[in-house]
Amino acid sequence: MSGRWRNRTREVILSFNGVLLHAKETWFFSRVAHFDVDISGFSDLEHETTLDQRWWTLQELIETSDPLTPRRLPELLAPLLEGRFPEKPLNLLNEESHYTAGMP
User: Fold this and answer.
1) Domain coverage including residue 79
2) Is 1 within a domain?
3) N or C: which end of the chain has fewer CB within 10 A?
4) How many folded domains does the chain comprise?
């Protein structure tokens, strides 16, 4: 792992697998050498609920119709890829995701 990183945080209440959850999410940015993601340690539930995992380019994130969390991921990622980092971690407390859209 190399390069600078900053975290982005948010709290969200979401329903997953029939259970209402209060999640505290933290995202980190770091540059790493390409590697194949190893899912051999996944639980049965993780295998059942993970359709695919792969590396994405910024352009693919911009163009996808797939739901992203946070929804503004490409917008948030672009300056980091250019080496422009925020002075303080960003608080994404008010970021809506496809998990929370329309929830009370």
Assistant:
1) 7-91
2) no
3) C
4) 1
